Amino acid sequence: MLACLCFIAAGIFTTSGLATHAGAAAVGATLDRDSVPAGNGALLTLTITGSRVDQIQLPEVENLIIQGRDQSRQIQMNGGQTIVSLTCTYAVGSNTPGNYQIPPIAVSIDGQQLTTKPLTLKVLDAAAAQAPTPSGAPPTAGQAPDTSGKRFGFLTVELLIKDRNYLYVGEIAPVSIRTWLPEDARAQLGGRIQPEGKAFTLHNVSERPQQSTEIKDGKRYTVVTWYGGISATKAGKYPASLSLDATVAVRDTSAPKPRRRNGGPFDDPLFDSMMDRFNTPMIQQEVTLKSEDEEIEVRPLPTTGRPDGFTGAVGDFKFESADIPASWKTGEPQQISASLSGSGNFALLGAPAPVPPDAWKIYPGKSDLTPRDAAAFSASKRFQFSAVARKGGKQDVTLSFSFFDPAAAAYKTLTTSPKPVAVSGADLVDVQPNIPAAPPEPAKPKDPLVGQHSVLSAVAPLTPLVARPGFVWLLALAGLLCVLGQTLAWLRHRRRDPARLAHAAMEIATHEALQAAAHCAEQRDVAGFFEAARRAIQLRLGALWNQPAPAITLAEISARIPAESPVARFFHEADLSAYGRHAAEDLLPHWRSLLAEALASLTPSAR
Hints:
By secondary structure, this protein is of the alpha+beta class. The chain contains eight helices and 31 strands. The protein folds into four domains: 123 residues, Sandwich (Immunoglobulin-like); 135 residues, no CATH class; 113 residues, Jelly Rolls; 109 residues. Helix content is 22%, strand content 37%. The longest helix is centred in the C-terminal third of the chain and has 26 residues.
């Protein structure tokens, strides 16, 4: 039976049909314990790495019994290479006490003969104390079946941030998501891993998980591992609850087992486990595997020291290149390009701005993201945008960009080396609104002295003033002058109102951004469309929330506006488009419609 198992294992291993770009062939053997009582057995694990196993030669030792138990195969993708490994397990023991030397096991892999290191097993007298049950051994006949919520498996999530166990708002932190399935389970994982709550968002979960076998809490599991990123928009402590729909079949350990004859060379459940696997029925169930509610701390971005040009980017970035034309003419646009690289949240990485800012007018452009790893945590982003020189003469120009470094817990501003440029033409002058000067207040006439002596005053009739015909017309004229004065005062105040002037400037800038977005949409430039559309929405939100438009980040939008609102959905679609998760050209009409809904929803009630 042992030979049969070995040939079956080798046959499965050689007919896998996988790529042959595997690592170097290797073989190793381990014992789960170094001593057992007579009549009992230890677990010997033989691990083989290689693309084809031709033969496994087990040694023969007097009075030592080696009985085949199980085999499993593991496939890993690493850097474009396929690594295939085979694990065979055997029960090893004897009825005769003594020290047994297990010679090297010879394995033929890809035509190459490899051997393991020798092992030593001590078989104790039957009267000696029973050795401890090895981790991962099958339950004995008297052991109660597993009735916990983890019977069909569970998930775990672990932060992979070096030297800290928290993350910041807006940061995409790398995580490992592991599915733990019972060793004998048969599972079909369907759908995608989803967060249970609204506190966290998953990013770039790997499409090809890794598979391994591990022991946890004394039980052996088949572990499927994904890698991805997790981010949060609000500060606090939240449970990292994830779920995954699956169909899992496990052994029904509560089912009665067939009676076996006592005695024989191995009267131990360890040696009966293989037959138990074939005879124990399976229970299949559609389940939702969930992770334990382990809390993850999310810290807010500090307000102290926040630069004016900060757009919400969190990570570690640097300039790769910057291309600024050396010759300019005021009023004529030219293209500036720059590349930034590093690791972090590239969706919130905005284009660097020319310095000094008052000497330039910037127009939205486009950007291209080039990932440098499977999860797109490390990448480079190239920006191309147009600028107009506003001041003539020779000047030194630099590009500046600000971000938050979570490792240093501080804001950083990157600046390129000064580039001397020559700008021809006269300085551009901003056209100020023509507000007429207010007319001077008329001087109030002094009341003339009324003579109190008949010689100094004219003789007049004694008719009361209110009874005279001209008094009514005088009152009407006075009322009309009062209304006219109030109207002129209101008009003068309205023309000088800073809020109205700021609103008018915002509407002009928003109109320009929307025109740029429409132009990019007609050119099928998705990145430029989202850049201009973001600017238009930020301008509207800045007017509503009384904040500078560039300082409004995605984290603040998610904190103040419901996730189902058109504004939040548009920013979510923009993030997905930045990672290439949509067929961009086909969805442009949908995104333009969503942009219109988002702008229409930005009313004073959205405060």
